[in-house]
């Protein structure tokens, strides 16, 4: 059982009826009476059934071995409706500069900037009699053509069900609208210069037992009842391409349906009668000007809704539905940590790979280089091999290994220059330099090498005339990381780009790609050396760090917990500084620093039961409201007295929060940051303040005094000086950069294959210590 049985049965009946009508009405033109009789009865019905079943078995089932699909799946079960846009949308932008600017403004990772109207693929197929579908490798062109053939069969099933007044198959909301027999042709079989496309179509019918297959093909072409699906124009061997193009154009021109005699009373479907043609080609190979009658459209990259739908379609097994695997997969892929992986998911082939990986592990690996490396390998080697593409001799001489090295150098050079888009001449120059520097590189035409790279895998894509980029930013990042590791550029990159968020993904990949016994040690130590000077920006910062160290010391702590406690103590100091902040910009910077500290402490396994989260969330909203209100008054240059009144009102509101201050102290007691006697004293002192809390009728200045008293109790109990909290914006930025680096270091450790325990323990022991204790080589 394949699951296609209901479709096969109903579609067979529908096609049999369609064929019988055409043979009855027009068969006399080409068939003898004795031949016409062959198109009825049980034997012919079996031939039609075999044809439908053969189509469903060959083109209705997917198994892509290069992305580790062990078992085939029905196309209908995972198919996600594609969107198409005019081909002109691919060449809309004028220069690399305009593309670069647009990318920065978009705030996205993807390079899809189409502003043309997108339409559902099946709607376009219904509207266009001649359709050329363009796109890069793995974007779903072949799958779309296969699906349109299934939809044509489904239409026959639906029409038969309607005639039988049956509910076996109900019409979809949007379905294929033309009565045609689908014929799927893989154009790579056109390896001969004398092969006839009409003969190939006839062979599809003959192999299933259709009588008089040549005459039958001629009859249905003349009747305009074939849907000819021409898959992979780019896969035709070069020596046969011109012949194949001529064959296709001649076939299209030889069998048009004349609609001139249709009157206004004829329905729309009759006016659109005629053979339908849908072809596909990789966009980089579509250079001959196109077929005269065909409308050229391009596959649009998957949007979030399509990615989510594909994932839901993929995880439909009973166990997956029971535990909601699809939802967990989508939520993880949508998280910040996996934004690079989600970018790959815009391509159906690579989205399939991601689903297979998640299906296997119920997670995406922390060692992301493995995923991205496999995705790149799928496009570089496996996809072409699985489709049995015959590569051009020039490409075979260059080879995948040399290409990988070349692409890595192009990726690194452009990434250092902050160029995600580059001119064709820039790539040509890189290829020529690469050839000159490598005696093993063949002396081939650089322009042809670029064209073959573009056609064969689509890793480099022409975005506008002579303006290129990598197909995915993820690939450029991976290749940049490979170049860094292979050419020992780790310390240089850390020194020049560590706190540039653009390089975050690259550094995570460097950690995973770092080879040998010492793995990512060199990277992590270089990052630590770069981080510590940020704490040396002022005496106040050094004093604050030394306070956090001295107030949290415990001989029983491990390096990890000791570091976490220092960070938690500093987070508290930042929260107290936030309570004092009178400027919104300063308050927001402090809030960010406090959040980074909280996250870093949590990652170091201190915040049991989210106690640190709860503690540090207690006063944030009110402190920010206070700073925001004061900023508003001062920015509007209002009367100073009014600003003071606002400050006093806010202080009164804050003074009522003695209970919140007590809750904050109790949460810190739970996570055991400070010495027990100090935190106990703090709690007791806060409790005694209950008797001193102002009443509702008290003059507002009393609230200011009470608010200051709460702050003083905090500072005295944990030996924190008020001067330490008077932090400038520049000092906060330095703290933020420091925390950013150490959070990134933790992510790099997770992404690495190997890290020395001694090295990492040493790094943990020095987190948030004065720079004199920085790591040594």
Search tags:
777 residues, elongated, 3-stranded antiparallel β-sheet, 7-stranded mixed β-sheet, alpha/beta, 36 helices
Molecular structure report:
There is one protein chain. With 777 residues, the protein is an alpha/beta fold. The strands form 3 sheets. Strands 4-3-9-5-8-7-6 form a 7-stranded mixed β-sheet, sandwiched between helices. A 3-stranded antiparallel β-sheet has the order 10-12-11. Strand 11 (460-464) and strand 12 form a beta hairpin. Helix 3 runs antiparallel to helix 7 (141-163) and helix 27 packs antiparallel against helix 28.
List the helices and strands and how they pair.
Blueprint: H1 5-26, H2 33-36, H3 42-59, E1 61-62, E2 73-74, H4 75-78, E3 83-86, H5 96-106, E4 119-120, H6 121-127, E5 130-135, H7 141-163, E6 181-186, H8 197-206, H9 213-222, E7 226-231, H10 238-254, H11 268-271, E8 276-282, E9 295-299, H12 304-314, H13 318-323, H14 325-333, H15 339-344, H16 348-361, H17 368-386, H18 393-398, H19 400-416, E10 422-423, H20 424-437, H21 446-456, E11 460-464, E12 467-470, H22 473-486, H23 490-497, H24 504-513, H25 521-531, H26 539-551, H27 559-580, H28 584-603, H29 611-617, H30 620-635, H31 640-655, H32 658-670, H33 676-688, H34 700-717, H35 729-751, H36 757-766
Parallel strand pairs: 5-8, 5-9, 6-7, 7-8
Antiparallel strand pairs: 1-2, 3-4, 3-9, 10-12, 11-12
Helix pairs in contact: 1-3, 1-7, 3-7, 8-9, 12-14, 19-22, 20-21, 22-24, 23-25, 24-35, 25-35, 26-27, 27-28, 27-30, 27-36, 28-30, 28-35, 29-32, 30-31, 31-34, 32-33, 33-34
């Amino acid at each position: 059982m394949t699951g296609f049985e209901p479709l096969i049965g109903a579609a067979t009946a529908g096609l049999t009826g369609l064929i019988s009508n055409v043979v009855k009405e027009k068969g006399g033109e080409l068939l003898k009476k004795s031949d016409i009789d062959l198109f009825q009865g049980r034997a012919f019905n079996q031939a039609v059934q075999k044809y439908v079943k053969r189509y469903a078995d060959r083109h209705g089932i997917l198994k892509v071995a290069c992305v580790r699909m062990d078992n085939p799946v029905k196309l209908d079960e995972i198919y996600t409706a594609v969107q198409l846009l005019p081909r002109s949308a691919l060449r809309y932008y004028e220069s690399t500069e305009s593309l670069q600017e647009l990318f920065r403004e978009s705030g996205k990772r993807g390079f899809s900037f189409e502003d043309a109207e997108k339409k559902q693929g099946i709607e376009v197929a219904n509207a266009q009699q001649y359709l050329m579908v363009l796109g890069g490798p793995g974007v779903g062109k072949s799958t779309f053509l296969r699906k349109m053939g299934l939809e044509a069969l489904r239409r026959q099933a639906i029409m038969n069900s309607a005639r039988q007044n049956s509910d076996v198959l109900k019409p979809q909301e949007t379905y294929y609208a033309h009565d045609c027999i689908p014929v799927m042709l893989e154009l790579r079989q056109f390896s001969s210069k004398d092969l006839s496309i009409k003969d190939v179509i006839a062979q599809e019918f003959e192999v299933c037992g259709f009588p008089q297959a040549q005459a039958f093909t001629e009859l249905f072409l003349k009747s305009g009842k074939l849907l000819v699906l021409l898959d992979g124009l780019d896969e035709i061997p070069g020596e046969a391409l011109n012949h194949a193009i001529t064959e296709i154009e001649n076939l299209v021109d030889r069998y048009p349906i004349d609609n001139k005699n249709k009157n206004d009373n004829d329905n729309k479907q009759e006016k659109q009668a005629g053979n339908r043609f849908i072809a596909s080609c990789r966009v980089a190979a579509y250079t001959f000007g196109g077929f005269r009658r065909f409308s050229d459209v391009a596959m649009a990259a998957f949007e979030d809704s399509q990615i989510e739908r594909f994932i839901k379609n993929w995880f439909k097994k009973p166990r997956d539905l029971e535990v909601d695997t699809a939802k967990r997969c989508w939520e993880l892929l949508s998280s910040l940590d996996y934004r690079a992986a989600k970018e790959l998911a815009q391509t159906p082939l690579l989205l399939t790979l991601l689903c297979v990986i998640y299906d296997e592990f119920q997670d995406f690996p922390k060692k992301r280089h493995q995923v991205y490396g496999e995705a790149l390998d799928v496009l570089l080697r496996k996809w072409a091999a699985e489709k049995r593409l015959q590569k051009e001799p020039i490409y075979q001489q260059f080879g995948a290994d040399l290409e990988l090295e070349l692409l890595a150098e192009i990726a690194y050079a452009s990434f250092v220059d902050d160029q995600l888009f580059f001119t064709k001449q820039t790539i040509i120059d890189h290829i020529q330099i690469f050839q000159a520097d490598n005696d093993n590189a063949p002396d081939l035409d650089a322009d042809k090498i670029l064209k073959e790279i573009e056609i064969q895998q689509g890793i480099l894509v022409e975005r506008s005339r002579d303006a290129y980029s990598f197909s995915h930013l993820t690939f450029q990042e991976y290749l940049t990381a490979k170049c860094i590791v292979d050419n020992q550029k780790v310390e240089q990159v850390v020194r020049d780009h560590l706190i540039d968020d653009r390089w975050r993904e690259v550094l995570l990949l460097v950690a995973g790609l770092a080879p040998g016994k010492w793995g990512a040690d060199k990277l992590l130590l270089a990052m630590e050396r770069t981080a510590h000077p940020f704490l040396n920006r002022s005496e106040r910062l050094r004093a604050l760090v030394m306070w956090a160290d001295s107030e949290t010391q415990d001989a029983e702590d491990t390096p990890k917990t000791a570091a976490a406690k220092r960070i938690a103590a500093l987070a508290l100091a930042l929260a107290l500084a936030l309570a004092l902040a009178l400027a919104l910009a300063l308050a927001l910077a402090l809030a960010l620093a406090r959040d980074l500290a909280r996250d870093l402490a949590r990652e170091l396994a201190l915040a049991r039961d989210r106690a640190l989260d709860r503690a540090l969330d207690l006063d944030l909203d009110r402190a920010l409201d206070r700073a925001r209100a004061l900023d508003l008054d001062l920015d509007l240059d209002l009367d100073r007295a009014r600003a003071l009144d606002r400050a006093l009102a806010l202080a009164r509101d804050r003074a009522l929060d003695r209970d919140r201050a007590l809750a904050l102290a109790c949460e810190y007691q739970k996570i055991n940051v400070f010495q027990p006697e100090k935190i106990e004293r703090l709690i007791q002192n806060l409790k005694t303040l209950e008797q001193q809390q102002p009443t509702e009728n008290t003059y507002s200045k009393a609230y200011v005094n009470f608010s200051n008293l709460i702050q003083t109790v905090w500072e005295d109990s944990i030996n924190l000086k008020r001067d330490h909290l008077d932090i400038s914006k520049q000092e906060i930025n330095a703290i933020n950069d420091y925390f950013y680096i150490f959070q990134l270091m933790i992510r790099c450790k997770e992404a690495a294959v190997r890290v020395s325990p001694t090295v990492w323990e040493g790094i943990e022991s020095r987190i948030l210590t004065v720079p004199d204790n920085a790591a040594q080589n």
